[in-house]
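Pair request: fold both.
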Amino acid sequence: MENVKNICLTEEHLREMSVSYVSMRDKEEFIKDVSPGCFDKMEIGTENGDPLPPFYKESAMRKHRYMTAALMKLYLRVDYDTETEGDPWSITEEDYETASRSFLISQLERIKKRTADKELQDKIYDLLADYKLLEKLLNAECYGMLPAMNDTLSRFQMMMSAQTTPEAMEALLKATEEAKQELAEYKAVRG
């Protein structure tokens, strides 16, 4: 059996390292950084194969990975490796699995229940409440972004600008000229 690594939170670590409140500025920065990455692009084409502007759907798993990274970095001050250079929230799959397998929220709940240290107990209550607030804020941001990203008018404009190539415009002008010519001929015949 392989050596399974887990994160074991201790009262000492929670007293010394963890924080129970993350500033609104840090919450805003986190949400601004991760919210665009909480969506998957769904490519859709027409029956004749012409591409249409994509639809977007929320990626619950990616959002959960971001929230796990936030719990570890912002609240518990536990290090993890990042998957993407320059993105401090892109927790690697291995570190995500380690954190998930460690049931960090459950550990916090158990320590909160068992500890005789009233001050630590209060700190954990506050930490969990602030973390849940961060999660609600991220959910609200994603909830607001999705309709804007899938807006019919915006998608139509994207489709029109994608189809407005110089060649397409040239063909459209040619078709317009041909239609004018046919209309002039029709008028001449009808008199």
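--- second member of the pair ---
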Amino acid sequence: MADWLLGYTILILAIAFGGYALNILREKKIAWALSRPRLARCPKCRHVYMIERFTLNPHCPNCNARTTNFITQN
């Protein structure tokens, strides 16, 4: 009886650990964290977008106005 109980407990723990491991792998594949310093907002059309790397003077893709940092606006 004790052998069955030990085997059942190990099986339940293995299933729980496997589900947790799959959840971590799935979150890494699906989750996409936005980089807040790269977000910008246009003061004219209120469009929020992500600034491309190495851009010195970001401009809005909709109205071509000079944009400001999203963090300083909110």
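Observation on the second member. The chain has two domains: 1-32, 36-73.
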